[in-house]
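User: I'm curious what two different proteins look like when written out as structure tokens. Can you demonstrate?

Assistant: Sure. I'll show them one after the other, since each token string lines up with its own sequence. Here's the first protein:
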Amino acid sequence: MTTTGTQAIDRAAELLSRVVLADEPPGFGELVLHTGLAKSTASRLLQALERHRLVHRDDSGGYAAGPLFALYASRREPYDELIRLARPTLEQLGLATGETVNLAVARGNAVVNGIELKAGDGAAISDETSLTIKGDGAEVLLFDLN
């Protein structure tokens, strides 16, 4: 644990991470067991996370991601976030190879929010184009499974 005065934040973040990353909503006892927190500490932190809409209790008493996550997700285009996260790696790849680098997500027969980084030319972002495999290089497609 940290000694920088942010121990409560670190503990709350660990609880929140366990809730959000869990396959099934974990119960209070499971969260206490896996975090090693005292029951009173875990209870106090979970209550604070609930007050701030970061977690909520489901009908079975388990903790699930709260409505604030849904609000955030509804205001964002997930492909924009993918591009933002991938861009530094794509830029490094382009610099290392001297080649144009593309990232696109296939949805049906279309490519959604593709980004093309041309060596030295910056980026071009397209909203949706036809799905084609072209060029001498290899393309990696990320398929939307929804």
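Here's a second, unrelated protein for contrast:
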Amino acid sequence: MASGWSGRRVEGGGGRARTPPSRPPTPASPPSPTAIIISLLSLYRRVRRAHAACLPPPLRALGDATARSEWAAMVAATPLPTEAMWRTFAGEWVAYVDALTAGGASGDLPPATLSHMNEDQRAALAGVKAQALAARGRMVPGEEGG
């Protein structure tokens, strides 16, 4: 019989089972750049599909435009975003999609997020909220994003 690990007890060979050769554990290799790009594109498509499934047409257009501009800004950022920045960026979008698809997207931001915004950002948020409420008033009953 050839040497090596067969996984079976060898009869008549002294009653000792062979043990597998000792191998050092291989460290987890970081994902390749291609895998990262594919996962980010998949997440972007997931965002767009969530908008199509969960938002009425006016809000879908607003959501798609916002996602497009946010992703384009991240890709074009100078200096290039670090891996930690990409992880944070992707994590926020995953949380957004999860909230949107679970029906928990109330539009209310946590106080911690609001406290980090400057006055211009708060004014822009108030404008978006006003547009969303106006769009909700124009929706036909039974057409509420689902």
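A detail about the second structure: The CA atoms of residues 11 and 57 lie 73 Å apart.
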